[in-house]
Amino acid sequence: MFFDASILFQIAGIGIIVALIHTILKQMGKEEIAQFATLIGFIIVLIIVINGLSDLFQQIKSVFLF
C-alpha cells in the first residue's frame, strides 16, 4: 500500500495559513471573521481527510471483493 505524504504537507500548510490569518484578524479586532476563517480551514481539511478515507475504503473493497 502506497502512502502519499503530500496530503500531510497539504494539511499542515492549510493549518499554518489558517493560524496566520486567524492571528492577523484577531489582532485587527475582527474576531468573528477570524473564527469564520478557522471554520472554513477546518472544513477544507475535513474534506481532504474524507476523500482520503474514501480512497482507502475503495482500496479495501477492491482487495476483498476481487
Q: How would you characterize the overall build of this protein?
A:
- This protein is an all-alpha fold and 66 residues long.
- It has one domain (8-61).
- Helix content is 86%, strand content 0%.
- It contains two helices and no strands.
- The chain has helices at residues 6-27, 31-65.
- Helix 1 (6-27) packs antiparallel against helix 2.
- The protein starts with 5 loop residues before the first helix and ends with a helix.
- 2% of the residues are buried.
- This is Stage III sporulation protein AC.
- Keywords: Membrane, Transmembrane, Transmembrane helix.
- InterPro entries: Spore_III_AC (IPR009570), Spore_III_AC/AD (IPR025664).
- The chain crosses the membrane at residues 6-25, 37-57.
- It holds the Pfam family SpoIIIAC.
Helix vs. strand class: mainly alpha
Strand proportion, as a percent range, falls in under 5%
How far is the N terminus from the C terminus?
16 Å
Tell me the quaternary state: single chain
With helices defined by DSSP (H or I, 4 residues minimum), what is the helix count? Answer: 2
Rg value: 17 Å
Low-confidence stretches: none
The largest β sheet comes out as:
none
Mean pLDDT: 91
How many discrete domains?
1
What is the share of helical residues?
over 70%
How does the overall form come out from the CA principal axes?
elongated
User: Care to count the β-strands?
Assistant: 0
Q: Report the order of strands and helices.
A: HH
